[in-house]
Give the backbone structure.
Amino acid sequence: MTDASLSTLPPALANPRKPARFALARRTIITPILLSLLILAVAIVTVMTGSRPFNQAMIDIMVRVVLVVGLYIFIGNSGVLSFGHIGFTCLGAYAAAWLTINPLMKKTSLPGLPSFLLEARLPYWQSAIIAALFAGLAALIFGKVLMRLSGIAASIATFAVLAMINTIYSNWESVTGATSSVVGIPIVRVIWPYVGAAIVAIFIAWGHAISRSGLALRAARDEPTAAAASGVDIPKERLIAFAISGVIMGLGGAATAHSIGVVTPDTFYLGLTFITLAMLVVGGMSSLSGAVIGVLLLSALIQALRWLEAGVPLGSTTFALPKGLQEIALGVIMIVILALRPAGLIGNREITLFRVNRNK
Amino acid sequence: MAHKIRILSATMAAVLAAFPVLADDDKIVVGFATGASGFMEAYDKPAQDAAMIRIKEINAAGGLLGKQIEVVSADTKSDRAEGAKAGLSVIDEGADLVVVSCDYDFGAPAALAAEDAGLVSFFLCAESVKAGIQGVGKHSFSASVLAAVQGATMSEWAFKEKKAKNFYRLLDTWTEYNKGICDGFDWMMPKLEAQGAKLVGQDTFKNDDASIAAQITRIKSLPKEPDAIMLCTMMPGAVSAIKQIRAAGINSMILNGSGVDGSYWLSAVPDLSNFYTPVQGSIYGDDPNPDVQKFNATYKKETGTDPSSQYVYPGYSMIDVWAKAVTRAKTTEADAVVAELEKMKDEPTLFGPRTFTAELHHQNSARYLIVDIEKGKPSVIGSWTISEPVPMNALVK
């Protein structure tokens, strides 16, 4: 009987043509490879200059790449704008601080930490991994509740998460040092670990996007009703993306902590939220290439404007923009880009070797 | 394809455009990694101007170790990540001394960069104990005086000179600086209580609280108005708190930290009286030391304005003590300069004696002038040095 009912399906559905294993991966892997090469190229140029401030500026950019790729994993694939992700960056940064600061310093500055954290002193890469997983776990727990919401309600709820994390970290004196700076985090001034983090983030984002879950999520982004009718469990797929992006944001947080050596809660609040979102939107919200290129382009622009602010010698005179013009110019340029290309510079395409692929 | 190339080339071009210039380092260089824009500018710029005055004086007198002092600077944009870059960029330009922002939080990234490079760093006017060995490393110093000294100075002075017996402690929990003032007060209070003073109550508020009516009600409900209120706060919330205290008819002495120094806000609280502030030097033209008045005149000539608050002065003392240490060490090499700085005990400066030790690169005792505001007019009414320095365990909590 059951056999009979199955055979009533039209032949195209009853016997679907399965694509070869990893066909999608083979077709799309060129994108993360190209993006990684771009990042490596920037890093090599940086090392060749031998200039320390330039190196630090590029480290900043690598950290931003991690953060914006983290945002892309959730926002790009689900289409839900999240204002809360920098909260997970905050969690990651503090976790990295807890794990790497000299125990002697921790006992006086952060006496409320549990003893296993007080005694811990890990190398930065181990702490970064643990910090990333910790942020991912927090994202999983928050996401379990938040992912049932959709549209603007979800966005505002993520913002509430950010505000909550910020308030807790600004007031929990014995564990986070409240609003005072947490110092003593080992500073890593070599660019390669940051390059590594950025490349790992890019490959994770790519792996998620072509996974079953990532494809289902994008289907739900474009056609929620049809996706749900086809059996896509939207809250579940969103939760997976939310947790993975939480991990990447946490990794970015650890990277931030090790790049400056000081963490405070207000570093991880509205300022960073909006600049990273702006980079994602300008680059192209639903494209991995957009996320990476958005960061590189806007960061380069910011650097160039700052350089102009500091003054450029032109013959015998120095040409300098008025201080503070950088922020205004950046705003204007962003408006112009978005007016001309509302979907961002890359739109929803990805860069590949031979042609610009439609991102399906 | 063309589209992609355009984007890639634009990216690369912009990245390359951000190339910095490298400079030689064949002289003595002081690097300022301070806020030239953003909110820190209000604190950093005046102190930096004062530092420049001392540098000019030294250069006019033949320079340091026979060399002229050159100044390089980089803007932190009042941002921590930019601060690290600004620090690294003045280091790349050959700085022998790295001067960083007034505030510990905003100066630390640049100071840490200097520490990494093995250079001496000075916070322009940070008053947290972290601004030095404790929060940066053994080559880092602060040019100002610990906030705790201010709280301790005011309470001891009020007890000894003004015969205040009943104290009330009102803390604004917003910043480390505020807590630091009250830490000093808390350390001094048991000593005064042994001599007959009494802490009759304490309360907290937040700098951005629109109203502190609840706190005022609790002061009003005390059986007797306290003789003195130790107000541990800073701008901008301080003005509103002071206004509300006086509007409620509480006429107790108000004791403050140096953060409220300056006359720019006095019009907001007309006819303010019985209000006391510790300062390192007076901006009101009545400093007992004529050299300070001469400095004020020079400052006005150089910048076109009078000093806006006592936070101008640490910049001058900073270059002064550093230059002395360099002269004595006969080199700008960091360890030698640090060793000379740590030998300084009550080293005279225009703004009171300065002491550095191998444990503390900050002032845990200082001579303060006491400014009294009566009917809205500030004037120096005396000076006070605390009977013993604030100990380490009261500073590091």
Notes: The first strand of chain A starts at residue 182 and ends at 183. The radius of gyration of chain A is 22 Å.
